[in-house]
Structures are given as C-alpha cells and as structure tokens.
C-alpha cells in the first residue's frame, strides 16, 4: 500500500543532495520512502494525503532514554528545585522500585512512555537497562526492552548497588551479567562519573563489552569535567552522552573523532546544571546529537521538541542545526543514518518515519516554544497519529 504525502510547504530531508525542498511531496510504500521531490512531479499512489502547506521532517530519533523503570522521584525533584544538588545515588531509589515491579508492570510502563514519545513525533528510540543491577533484573530489563524499543543498551554499570562491594560488582558486570545480557542488546554503556564508575572501572566495562561484540556508548562529563569523553573517543564509542562539562581538549578530541557528542539539555535543566557548549562543539567540527534522556530521576520528559527549542533558545544552535541533531544526529549516534532503512533522513530507501508539523516551517519549533506542533506521524510506514 503506497501513500503520497503532498502539499508539503517545507520538506527537511537531511539528505545532502535533496536538502530542504519547498512545495514538495513524498511517497511511502510499506515501511520505506520510495520517492521524494517537487509536488508537481509526484507519481500516483494508492492513498493521497494533502498536508496543506505544513512542514515535514524525519521523525525524531531519540538516541538516549532510560525507560525500563518503575516508581517515581517527584520528591527528589522537589528537593532539587529547593536547592539540593543532583547525585548519582538517586538511581538506587529507582533500582529498588524496578526490582519490586512485575514484568507486566515494567512492560506497561515502557509501552506508555514509548507511545507518549511517538505521539510527539519520535519514530526511532533507544532505551537502556540500568535500574535492575542484578543478573536476573538486568536480563529481564533487556528482554522487555527488546520488545518495545528500536535499540537496547546494557547499562549494568549505572551504579554500584548500595551495600555492594565495588570490585565484586565490577567483576559481575564484566562477567556473568554481560554474558547473560549481551545476546539481547546491541550496545553497552557505562556511567563514568564521580559517585558511579571511575576511568579504570569504565574502561574495564567497555573493553569487556567490546570483546563481546557490542557497540559502545558512554555517559560522560555530566556532573563535572572527567575522563568520560577521552575514554569514549579512545575506544571508538559511537557516542558520549551528556558532555555538560567539557575541557578544550575534550572538544578537540570529539572534533577529531567519529564519536557523536549527544547533548541532553532537558536533563541539564532538570538537574540545574549549566547547558552544554553546543557552539564550541559545532564550531570545532564535532557531530552533535540531541536526545531526551527520558528517565524518572534526572530528566522526566519524552519531548524531543522541548530539547530542540532549548537548544535554539538557550544553546545558540540554529534551528537547522538543532533539528538535524535531533533527527540525523541521533541516527548517527546509533549508526543508523545510512543504507537501506536509514533513519533520521528522508530519501528513497530510508525508513518511512515522517513527522508533519502543524506549522509552515521547522522554525516554529523555536518560535512557538511549548506549543504542541505535531500534526501527523508515520512510523515505519504506519500512520500512528
Ligand atoms: O543519564 N546519568 C546517569 N543516568 C541517568 C540518570 C539516572 C537517574 O538519575 O535515575 C542520566 O541522567
């Protein structure tokens, strides 16, 4: 069944040759884009949808979320707004609630959060384990996540659980836990930060995961300058996420590498941290992605539009840069931006992930902050809104 989407006032393709097109059309067939070009030249299709001058872009690619959780941390958020600093230790609160939840409760919670994201234009989403922190709880998180998210990351190295010996826990993560979880995930991650895992421990986790054939991601430089970015670049991680506190050498290292700097502005705002220096990264030539970091502790939002708006209004990114970072950048961070079924891009052969805004241009995402602008969404060719 093919669908012609026509009457597009502004089409952002993220394709180098196609660029941004006025008066454009798209044809979807099954789960793929099969044609992109000027509206008057569009071929026929089984169904025709006229979007009446609205802007169309690839669906958001949210490359960093933590949606395998139970419970709520409203109280911690309230304390933070009253001046208490964010610390890694809050993860243990969600760990306890997650361990106590049934599989059905965890799956239901995940499904609700994914549906919430999709309603707002997210069409490709990564999520992580990391609130189980036993072999059995990390394994069930990975299995549940694999049923509902596009990409799954193993984050056994999120926190050393309370009352646990750090060296024994590290051995567990790099050994039995990794062996159990690896068949169900594509990526491994480590929270490389004071209060979580230091540089040596992080390196051990990443090398063990690499030996298992997993791709690498790193939580780095969230709460202060530290070794996360350098380690991610050295080991060829696909992305290093947060990047809130960067030394000039970190910016240079990222600019000279294939590691994507994934910025999580909603998290920085919710934890009352400064916003990352996106301008320094972009001007140096680093690849930047924007992601929601949706989780119950540091960033409880699934809104990629909010991240884009913040990036433009408060981080000196242009609208074009921010939209690209939240679509193509996320895809690049997940190594899904090229080839058959590419995401974050609209060109023949790409996955049919389409986001129609109730606005004539993507500029309205920043020009009309806080307004829900998602008009229609196709995810892998299926109309989901
Ligand atoms: O990306 N930084 C580590 N992990 C999450 C927060 C998890 C939590 O506080 O529950 C993050 O911000």
TrEMBL record:
Residues holding Zn(2+): 64, 66, 219, 293
Span of the signal peptide: none
Limits of the Amidohydrolase-related domain: 56-367
Entries under PANTHER family matching the protein: IMIDAZOLONEPROPIONASE (PTHR42752), IMIDAZOLONEPROPIONASE-RELATED (PTHR42752:SF1)
HAMAP family to which the protein is assigned, alphabetical: HutI (MF_00372)
One Pfam family linked to the record: Amidohydro_1
GO biological process terms on file: L-histidine catabolic process to glutamate and formamide; L-histidine catabolic process to glutamate and formate
One Gene Ontology molecular-function label: zinc ion binding
Ligand binding (4-imidazolone-5-propanoate): 73, 131, 158, 222, 298
Keyword Cytoplasm: yes
Main location: cytoplasm
InterPro entries in the record: Amidohydro-rel, HutI, Metal-dep_hydrolase_composite, Metal_Hydrolase
Name of the featured protein: Imidazolonepropionase
